[in-house]
Amino acid sequence: xxxxxxxxxxxxxxxxxxxxxxxxxxxxxxxxxxxxxxxxxxxxxxxxxxxxxxxxxxxxxxxxxxxxxxxxxxxxxxxxxxxxxxxxxxxxxxxxxxxxxxxxxxxxxxxxxxxxxxxxxxxxxxxxxxxxxxxxxxxxxxxxxxxxxxxxxxxxxxxxxxxxxxxxxxxxxxx
Length: 175
Fold this sequence. Notes:
Layout: H1 2-30, H2 32-43, H3 49-60, E1 81-85, E2 88-92, E3 96-97, E4 103-111, E5 115-122, E6 127-131, E7 133-134, E8 143-144, E9 151-153, E10 157-164, E11 167-168
Antiparallel strand pairs: 1-2, 2-10, 3-9, 4-5, 4-8, 5-6, 6-10, 7-9, 10-11
Helix pairs in contact: 1-2
């Protein structure tokens, strides 16, 4: 009996995905204004994965663990000193980099003042920036756990920054 419920639920999800895909295809191909609207609001904006996860969990059930279930920094991120750096902080004597919280990788690349940077959007909606990194072992849009090693710190210095809704948060609350 459970097997039939699972198959029925899976088929509903697949059909709903196909319907949404077809509706978006028709919308985009209907006119150039729709295409420009879609590009502006989908391609040019960063998708807030925490809001997407809430909506998905509401209608389809939970796939990822909730923020309350995640353990803060059970990883091997060790450092000897913390100092203010631009809007965030610099951690000294860091070798391997592990995320403070589990989340989705939303950016990998160069950022001014931070060098090679990884941005992970936690399930709590906070963007965790890890700058001055090398030997990156993850890809864009990967889901990472807080106990994973995602990179190494260049010159044993790691720049961190915490943002929520475009606002910089006080690093002392997270470190």
